Amino acid sequence: MFKAVISGAKNFKKVIDAASNLLIEICFEVNEERVKAIAMDPDHVALVSIDIPKEAFDEYEADVHSIGVDLEAFKKIMNMAKAKDKLILELDEEKDKLNVVFKGAMTRKFALALYDVSSLDLQVPDIEYPNEILIKAGPFVDALKGANLVSDWATLKVEDGKFIVYAKGDLNESETVFEEDSESIISMNIGEDAKSTFYLEYLRDMTKAASSGDILKIYLGSDMPVKVEYDVAGANLTFLLAPRIES
What we know:
This protein is an alpha+beta fold. About 15% of the residues lie in helices and about 45% in strands. A 9-stranded antiparallel sheet has the order 6-2-3-4-18-17-16-10-14. The protein starts with a strand and ends in a 6-residue tail after the last strand. The chain has 2 domains: about 1-115, Proliferating Cell Nuclear Antigen; about 130-240, Box (Proliferating Cell Nuclear Antigen), CATH 3.70.10.10. Helix 3 runs antiparallel to helix 4. Keywords: DNA replication, DNA-binding. This is DNA polymerase sliding clamp. Belongs to the PCNA family. Homotrimer. The subunits circularize to form a toroid; DNA passes through its center. Replication factor C (RFC) is required to load the toroid on the DNA.
């Protein structure tokens, strides 16, 4: 069985939005303790990991199940959530559906078809990074928006104790510099200068679910995948994005 209740349906919507920005389908692995999912995007450029402990829910009952869903369909259903709705997720094994129920001024029930989605037994790679930056999501997203004005690519750099988001187009350039004592920075653990270049659309998709005051953990090294972590509605979201390797 699987049944989970959360008082803030809109908050859980952010988790589904975060996954659907990069993935078409996903397999949620549920057990007595948590809901987890790890998947690669169709181009195998980005990895998405979702970890929701049972404590994030108001009510939680589960045994071991794999729940594969089409994320676009799930997202459309979650878009129906009202601000004060309670969300109930319940597995109907007989009909092979995931029931999605919103309880508020009225009760609305949707039955989401399950798919045989391979989880591929993926794991988040255990990579040692030389640099760790904790930064408020709002300023970082603004820096990405600035970079997007001039290019489809952004270079994330650690240089002289500063964290820099840089982009260069055919004619124009954009640079946002975060000093260690900036009010946007929570902390910087700098081991060495580093830079890597990434496709901006992916970086922006990875951070869309974060509110401006949320704290992003960004792990960075030279020509290494960037790792971005943050929490939404009690869920831990982790993204890895492969860099563009310069010739």
